[in-house]
Design goal:
single chain; 410 residues; alpha+beta; 8-stranded mixed beta sheet; 13 helices
């Protein structure tokens, strides 16, 4: 499912009007309703009350339901006050209040659905509990790039043009793969709320190498982050290995791209004649540590007029790199690559050192021409209206850098 794709549509719960895209919330609710024995949910943020109500219905029907959240989003928002909250949390609270919907976490708590967050191991939390997966009856996995929020799936309250951050959702039928995801969940859960303090998050987890599972006639490989920086098995190394195998084409649609080693391998593949297209979220692309700038042959200093260490702008810029044109307020939240029209890299894993070495993340590599075709259609949709040259926003930032820093870049 792709929440902004052409060729499908649904009635928006925000506006009550028809809008383009797949209704990822209804896909999740339908999957939850089919659970007979167990539901294991690990997601950074859950604010959609209809999903909470679907979980509660299964809980009351005797299905085992367990929920893991990121600690920044695990408290009921309806009990929060703007005073004392960071600015971004204040903005989040205002948006949730503007929706006028019930508080999903409060609903779960009142119904007695057990939940915990990444402070359950006695720490202040991992970098981010950034997983976005649901395991059903140890038979099916739902995962992708989307948080279970209005902004993640449908759009922002009061923003008529918004369609939600650009996201996707996979439903994968494989007991073998579901078992691998369940093992990851069990590390997070430990004995659960009120049990022994044996939950494990971040680098406290037992480090796991790449695992493979049968997915119909195809194979899926899954890696759960994080890994220590000296480990050879971390997520960026896996992505680098996959990119290095490309013979014909590489398409990227990314929220974050800040890993220098991946930009460097793309440079090698370009020299080998591989066709490369790259789209990065506009809000991230113009940051000083964005590798999107490297591909365009540009360098941008931070607020101290310092360039990123080991920065490596391409001498010959890549022309096929740009930013998508999105509805106002929305972000490109995908984290996918399509290689040679047959291999898909996806998951919650942003292409950054933080994802590899700090956060709880899911990274999937699926060899499937059929699945690759779905993601290629999404890439084409985004590519058809993308801006490939210097955007006005980029021009302004470069002009301000020149005025402020001149020749004093460090």
């Amino acid at each position: 499912g792709f929440n902004q794709r052409h060729g499908s549509g649904y009635i928006s719960p925000l506006s009550g009007r028809w809008r383009p895209g797949d209704n990822l919330e209804q896909q999740l609710i339908a999957a939850i309703a089919g659970a007979q024995r167990e539901l294991l949910l690990a997601v950074q943020e859950l604010t959609l009350p209809a999903i909470a109500e679907a979980l509660i219905e299964r809980h009351r029907a005797g299905v085992t339901v367990k929920v893991v959240l990121e600690n920044n989003y695990s408290a009921p928002w309806s009990r929060q006050h703007p005073a004392g909250l960071p600015a971004h949390q204040q903005q989040r609270l205002r948006r949730l209040q503007a929706l006028g919907w019930p508080d999903a976490i409060a609903l779960l708590e009142r119904a007695g659905v057990p939940l915990l967050d990444d402070t359950a191991d006695g720490s202040a939390g991992s970098g981010l509990m950034h997983h976005k997966f649901l395991v059903i009856d140890r038979q099916r996995v739902l995962t992708g790039s989307a948080n279970f929020t209005s902004s993640g799936l449908h759009g922002d309250a009061g923003q008529a043009s918004s369609r939600g951050n650009v996201n996707h959702l996979l439903q994968l039928e494989s007991p073998e793969l579901a078992g691998i995801f369940a093992e990851e969940f069990e590390q997070l859960w430990g004995d659960g709320p009120g049990g022994k303090p044996n939950s494990r998050f971040g680098l406290g987890k037992h480090s796991r190498r790449l695992q493979q599972a049968q997915l119909g006639s195809n194979r899926a490989s899954v890696l759960f982050a994080p890994h220590r920086r000296d480990s050879p098995h971390h997520g960026l190394a896996l992505i680098r290995q996959q990119l290095d195998q490309a013979k014909q084409s590489i398409d990227l649609a990314l929220f974050v791209f800040s890993a220098q080693e991946l930009a460097d391998v793309l440079a090698i593949k370009r020299e080998q004649g591989v066709e490369i297209r790259v789209l990065v979220d506009p809000g991230f692309a113009h940051r000083s540590y964005s590798e999107w700038l490297d591909l365009k042959g540009l360098a941008m200093a931070d607020h101290r007029c310092r360039l990123e260490a080991n920065n490596n702008p391409w001498e010959t810029p890549l022309e096929t790199v740009g930013v998508p044109r999105l509805p106002r307020g929305d972000k490109l939240h995908h984290k996918f690559a399509v290689i040679d029209n047959k291999t898909v890299i996806t998951g919650s894993f942003n292409w950054s050192p933080a994802a590899a070495h700090t956060n709880d993340e899911t990274l999937l590599v699926i060899d499937s021409p059929t699945l690759a075709a779905h993601f290629s259609r999404e890439m084409e949709r985004l590519w058809n209206t993308a801006t490939l040259g210097k955007t006005p926003r980029l021009e302004r930032k470069l002009h301000r850098q020149q005025q402020k820093c001149g020749l004093s870049l460090q």
